[in-house]
Batch of 4 targets.
Target 1
Amino acid sequence: QVRLVESGGGLVQPGGSLGLSCTASGLTFSSSIMSWFRQAPGKERELVARITGTRGTNYADSVKGRFTITRDNAKNTVYMQMNSLKPEGTAVYYCSARTITTWTDYWGQGTQVTVSS
């Protein structure tokens, strides 16, 4: 059974930083495509950042230069460092894993990030 567990959300002031972690189990993590999505109230879920098994990355234009996604295959964990946070970054952030053998998507339960003074 695949399980993704996020941690690291919370309240941060505009301009501040926050780090998210997602630990996976039940899948071949090293080859899986790992992503962070977010969903703000009243809006659709959107891709924030993605990292492949070969550590290729891509980012939403709105976070380029401020967010960094990394992975540690030895710990089955993907991270996202978020700097210079803006109020529009307030959302529930979800970790997602896509297996390359079956092209199946799995989701974590989400973690709330609130950017507010």
Note: The mean pLDDT is 97.
Target 2
Amino acid sequence: QVQLVESGGGLVQAGGSLRLSCAASGRTFSKDNMGWFRQAPGKERELVAAINWSGDSTYYADSVKGRFTISRDNAKNTVYLQMNSLKPEATAVYYCAADTLLRGTYNYWGQGTQVTVSS
């Protein structure tokens, strides 16, 4: 059974940092593109950051550029999202996802982890 399990969410004050982890099991994701999405209450889910299978190409939403860093450790089948200088508007459920077909469509999803940034 393929699973993506996020961890590292929590409550943090504005300006603080959190590091999210996404551990994959059931298949090797080392050849898959991976992404972090978030969904705030009443808003659509948005792509926050993405990384290609080799880790040498990344994408960031404009709202997080310069503050968030996506990385991966293929030996550990894990993807990370380092979030610095957090703002209250970053409050959301964060999801890890895998694009195993490399077509820009994410076909495996984690259950999400809550991130709450207090002002």
Note: Residues 48 and 114 are 15 Å apart (CA to CA).
Target 3
Amino acid sequence: QVQLVESGGGLVQAEGSLRLSCAASGSIFSGDDMGWSRQPPGKQRDFVARITRGGRTNYAESVKGRFTISRDNAKNTVYLEMNSLKPEDSGVYYCFSSLGPVTSWGQGTQVTVSS
């Protein structure tokens, strides 16, 4: 089983930036994808970004051009650089690690963007 611990959330003004980190430990497999989803207040959890171990990325349309996902395989850590933040980016950001049908989730970190 994979354990995931997020950090880096907080309160930021619109157009500001934040960098989230997610450290993975436990049963890390060489082929796992890692990524981020978010859950705004009162809404469902939605996909934000994903990165394969080889570095291929994909993003939700709403964050393309503003967010950048990266990973350090040696540290089993994935990052989410968030720029030009908007109030609608607010929510709990969850890190995930997936391999085939198995997905592990972190406990989440709160991001609040004030207008």
Note: The CA atoms of residues 32 and 42 lie 30 Å apart.
Target 4
Amino acid sequence: QVQFVESGGGLVQAGGSLRLLCVASGINFGGYAMGWYRQVRGKQRELVASISVGGTTNFADSVKGRFTISRDNAKKTVYLQMNTLKPEDTAVYYCNAGMRAPIFPQWGQGTQVTVSS
């Protein structure tokens, strides 16, 4: 079955960095664009970054210039490198397939990112 397992979150001071990982299973990973989403309690989940099959990337305006996204098809893994973190980046981060919207209804447990000021 489709499964996404996110990891790499943690507590970091403002200005710090984190690298998130998402391992996918049950899908033809190399055939899908992949995206990272985040959700703050009580708010809608938002797309922050995505990467196409060919490596084209898109970013939300709020993270442009600070976050990068990459993928390793052999490992069925998508990464989110987050630099110059801000308190407003605090959220639970999830991944799913798709460039502009999630393709699959399944979601992983997410990974908590907390940025202290």
Note: The two ends are 40 Å apart (CA to CA).
